[in-house]
Amino acid sequence: MNHGYTYQSALTSSQAICWRIEDIIGGTKRLDFSKPFMPESFARVNKLAFLNNEEKLALNQIRGNTYLCIFGLVEEFILPFVLDHARTQLHSDDYRVRALIQFASEEAKHIQLFKRFRKEFEDGFGTDCAVIGPPEAIADAILAHDPLGVALTTLHIEWMVQRHYVDSIKDDQDLDPQFKSLLKHHWLEEVQHAKLDTLMVEALSAGRSEDQIMKSVEEYIEIGGFIDGGLKQQVEFDLDSFQRATNRELTESEKQEFRQVQLQANRWTYLGTGMTHEKVLETLESLTPKARQRIESISAAFC
Ligand SMILES: [Fe+2]
Ligand SMILES: [Fe+2]
User: How far apart are CA 80 and CA 103, in angstroms?
Assistant: First the structure.
């Protein structure tokens, strides 16, 4: 594939960016609970016409907390996966080893950053919000799959972060500046991860037959199905958190509409934006055109 990504250039870019958690949150840097945390394209609260503006804001912020939780979860499997991949060749290419260890170190920092923001949310929101987990069990379930399937899932997540920031967050002037800063700083480092993931997919697919590659693509789809199951559960948690936070019991038909709109909003946020990302599709196509076609045949359900 003619992408021009190298371990050395990813490492150089990463070293130039390098921020600390303390630069982003803490001290005078606090969440502003009078502002939304998520862009409307992900939160989709305006579709729920039976909610007033205050209730829409509360749901938007609950979805912001969910975003912190979902990223906390996925980074828990990416960290050991990248370390394991680095370990297979510690003595051949110094830039490879250093770039992958830097990648893992940044994901460990992101896990801590998302935890730090969740603590900030808990302190300021005033209602306990349940989230799916525990992260270790979810990571174990994902890592039980074929490494190429896991690498494709990781590629999906990294490009998805690019799209979230560039298409939906960067130019949204209504978002809380602190939450926006979190998403910006995360994006800055994920740019390099997406390139390194592309190299990981290439390494793991080398020498595989088309049938073996398509089996891994099915494993990527299975992991997507597993995440989708988690999102269904998360929507139930978010419904419960919303009702407690706003002291409002929705009617049965309102609950049904909430579930339907919010599940699709979550699907777009965490599955659709990755599965339809042109860079993910290009990498799949470089493995075999059938891989791209297979994902394109199912992605509409997550958009
Ligand atoms: Fe990350
Ligand atoms: Fe990442």
Answer: 11
- How many angstroms is it from 68 CA to the middle of ligand 1? 11
Closest by CA position to 159, among listed 296, 301, 19, 284: 284
Return the ligand number nearest the Cα of 183.
1
* Residue among 157, 60, 155, 73 at smallest CA distance from 114: 73
Tell me the whole-structure pTM to 2 decimals: 0.97
**Cα distances (angstroms) measured from residue 298 to each of 52, 202, 275, 292:** 35, 23, 9, 10
How many angstroms separate the most distant Cα atoms in the chain? 62
Residues measured by CB to lie within 5 Å of ligand 2, the ion: 190, 193
Interior angle at CA 158, CA 155 and CA 161, nearest 5: 145
Cα–ligand 2 centroid distance for 191 (angstroms): 8
Buried b (16+ CB within 10 A) or exposed e, 91-121: eeeeebbbbbbbbbebbebbbebbebbbebb
CA distance 179 to 24: 9
pLDDT tens digits for range 56-108: 999 999 999 999 999 999 999 999 999 999 999 899 899 999 999 999 999 99
